[in-house]
Amino acid sequence: MTTTTATDPTVVDPTVVDPAVLRDDLDAYARALRAWLASEPALDQWRGRHYPNTEERIADHGRFMGVLFRAGWNRYGWPESAGGLGGDERHRAIFYDALSAAGLPIPAPHLMLETLGPPVVHFAPELATAYLPAYLRGDEWWGQGFSEPEAGSDLASLRCRARREGDTYILSGSKLWTSHGATSSRLVCLVRTGTPESRHRGLSMIFLDADTPGVTIRPIALASGENELAEVFFDDAVVPASNLVGAEGKGWAVAMYLLQWERAMYAWICAADALRRLRDLRGQVATRLAAGARLPDGSAARLGTVYEQIIALRSRSAATVRRLAAGDTVGPEASVDKVLLATVEIALFDLARDLLGTEFVLGATDEVAAWRNEWWFSRSATILGGSAEVQRTIIADHVLGLPKEAK
After folding, report:
1. Which H or E run contains 22?
2. How many CB atoms lie within 10 A of CB 162?
3. In contact, 79 and 121? CB cutoff 8 Å
4. Residues 72, 1: contact at Cβ < 8 Å?
5. From the candidates 148, 228, 262, 345, which is the catalytic residue?
6. Quick check: is 262 catalytic?
7. Whole-angstrom Cα distance, residue 384 to residue 379?
8. pTM of the full predicted structure?
């Protein structure tokens, strides 16, 4: 790894420290990472940068990942067999937190990396060895194909079919709301290999190239105009049987394993990014006040409330990350993280809307446009990845053990 030599004698300089030291000593890793982020002038190009569309943003964030990969920082927390430098989930949590504290965006592809990477590493190490290094370098990223037109939160009812023929599977059907589907190089999809009556016992997880013949991807434009999601159609697409993630018929177990990271590490990333955006908002508000603008009554209290909500989310997700790093299985209690995350995202961007006032609605700068886009996307926070109603039911039934609702 290369870096500017730090002058602070308490900072570990990764140019002279063996990666094994940073792998085994979390404090040393955090100090060295923070020093590099503060002293590397090339990173300024990503501070405060906004993009006209999803495609440019994710592509440029991929370039940022390449810089981080060559310096080694986003490789910690991933196994060496998959392009990493060892360590565990705590390294990745420190990495995301340090980016936010340095005023840098967490690269968008890392959101799906945290959701899809761990199950691929765990259930399909050969696929992780073949493809994860390119993901960490930002050369490619993956989309998550779970939901279907008639199977959203109820994944056990999905109908996208994978039929075994020799050493291949033939995929037919469709996926809806595929995260990063419009720009991804590969897809990780939950498909039905059993009968419709088999429900969750007849599901399998499969990994495929997005440009596989028979795969058609149609971006879904959000209210903001961004192409964050896509609809994917499979018309007898042929995928090697070796691309299964886990065993045939065991896709439900893979999906449940995946949800630990979708609920926990994803929540940690979003909390870290929310802190950065709250600092940005505070700076914009200070500028407006200096120019003589007036804020709505109670604005200071609302800023404090949102900060408290972010800290609550960080506290909860930090505990979950520690459990993941210890090798524990995180079950339905991870739904608490998901509910807290939705609360934070809605509250933060509603606050931005109200504090920026008319500028939020009519402003033409890239910065204001970014706030508007994020506000639109936050409307999905109580639905995306499992609706808030479903999450609260899971908490009531499986965490709190409350009596079942009367029908």
Report:
1. helix 19-24
2. 28
3. yes
4. yes
5. 262
6. yes
7. 9
8. 0.91
